[in-house]
Amino acid sequence: MSPAYNFASGPARLPDAVLERAHDTLLLRGADGACALERPFSSPAFRATLERARQRLAALLDLPAGYRVLFLAGGAMQQFSMVPLNLLGPSRRAAYADSGYWAGRAIREARRFAEVAVVARYQGDTPLAAPPLENWRLPDDCAYCHITPNETGEGIAYPALPNTGAVPLVADATSCFLAAPLDISRFGLIYAGAQKNIGPAGLTVVIVREDLLQREARYAPAPYCYRQQLAENNTVNTPVGWAIELAALVFDWIAESGGLAAMAEANRRKAERLYHAIDTSGGFYRAPVAHGHRSPSNVRFQLTDERLTEPFLQQAEAAGLTHLRGHCHVGGLRASLYNAMPEAGVAALVAFMADFARRQG
Amino acid sequence: MSPAYNFASGPARLPDAVLERAHDTLLLRGADGACALERPFSSPAFRATLERARQRLAALLDLPAGYRVLFLAGGAMQQFSMVPLNLLGPSRRAAYADSGYWAGRAIREARRFAEVAVVARYQGDTPLAAPPLENWRLPDDCAYCHITPNETGEGIAYPALPNTGAVPLVADATSCFLAAPLDISRFGLIYAGAQKNIGPAGLTVVIVREDLLQREARYAPAPYCYRQQLAENNTVNTPVGWAIELAALVFDWIAESGGLAAMAEANRRKAERLYHAIDTSGGFYRAPVAHGHRSPSNVRFQLTDERLTEPFLQQAEAAGLTHLRGHCHVGGLRASLYNAMPEAGVAALVAFMADFARRQG
User: Fold this and answer.
1) CATH topology (fold) of B259-360
2) Fold for domain B17-256?
3) Catalytic status, residue B16
4) ipTM of this model?
């Protein structure tokens, strides 16, 4: 393994132990002559993999009764249409909170299928802040309320979940899923693209409360219908078999590492260390997000002297600290600190930042 | 590698050389700190992979000018809705040929979005045969005509392509793609799930003629819009990065093995050998598909004494000849002979079949 630390926002670094386990077994063809990449979906081996992935995820999340889990091909973006196509039911209305770039894309896509009411907005001036949690006016006949609890691009995280009463809360949790314990009972539906804390790109986990499956998805293409996917055991469309297998390995790794509480504790330490380095840099670095709204997963920062951004990125990369460029819509710098980023990676970044500042000063 | 020969219809056996190359590089993190499973989509490394896969596929197919290639997350089933959602345009009508199980599923899904005219049907009595190629009455305002040139379940292949005149021909080529040279200029759009001759499951290749991209896909979810996928360089929805990388390795392997002409020649030899063994078994085995309509990719056969089917499957598996059970909707036996099945695998199967017959006799 290379000593480089890859801070990409996703597809992101996978745990070394998972990659090594995948490597060890990649060429192993079982008694049925198929290795993991060749597993037929009708085989008991594939069904066992799927069930193992489901059970391990349920155990990690302490999944309450009445929820179902899907492992769908594709990314979270697909859910931007799949959610309205499945959950609108007889209503045409849905509520969305606009917390930044990804919420904005979810809203744009939902508008093609629904009347969207934007019920809260993030504060876009520095310091940036998540949408306020009070005074959400959910429209009558509102089928659901969609939030993006962690904005990967802006580096904003909600300090708490909104209370939407009887309206099902739907969340794009792509960049915070499995980074900390999560009370699934707060959600009607929650989804997350795999390429942050779950596994390789091209897979999305969806957890849905069973009562929402009663809604009719008349205009959904078959692979987009949650109910049909559950009825056909996740195989309406070709499942991404090996990615599901890798996800099961990641779930094992999380459990062996102490579970979600241990992840949250390590993630808190990593984020605190990096934000502290930024805040105590004497203004050389700046974090544009307000305290209490700063994402522990995606740490955004800037150089006060913006002319130093490119030299910083070049020198960091030469030092093995890679993919630190900010999201293209917001610029600046970003370090994504998902579960697989070791604390040593953050220590190396903080040391490099101090050294870079010293050399400029 | 295990000596077992896996005859699954898909996800199918991958070439040993490709698996070994993937294994050799799985843990290699590049200068940017990311291995193939971690490659960010915004990285030059990912764009290079995508471009390499496109160029190698275009070279194999001798792709004519005016066609575009997409590598989409998900399986071919997704195309059953994606095709009508993109190609219907102002028309509501499309023509479909019903050649068996998979064509039937494509028709069922298309009916949710289009007025479907079934313009030809396969012969369902033994001997089975592909739809006749004459007298297709394409409706006025017909947006396209969809065929399934190889039916994976029934083991039926069209002896030639139909002539649909000015109506764009659309094909689900999942189980015959890259098994032989193909004149892409005959098609308006052709698609193939990866898990037969392209790579691992969860990826679908779509090749579309540029003029068809002008049609408006008003009701398509964003990841389902060919035009948008092409405009955003295949990344509207999270691409299955590693599967694309593996596909590029498979394309290399085909080229190094002599290209599609060499694949076709080997596939012809393999299929002939197996069908010959069936036809000369003195009625012990039977192939239900008519000569000239027999799929070289999916060889269907039966034991005349059906009580021997389960013992055959059990003993074959014990002999390392696996996944020979026929499609659940048609029963019997099936050996899928995609590019990665070596001739030695067919030889072993033929020897086992003769031995099994001898032992019963």
Assistant:
1) Aspartate Aminotransferase, domain 1 (3.90.1150)
2) Aspartate Aminotransferase; domain 2 (3.40.640)
3) no
4) 0.94
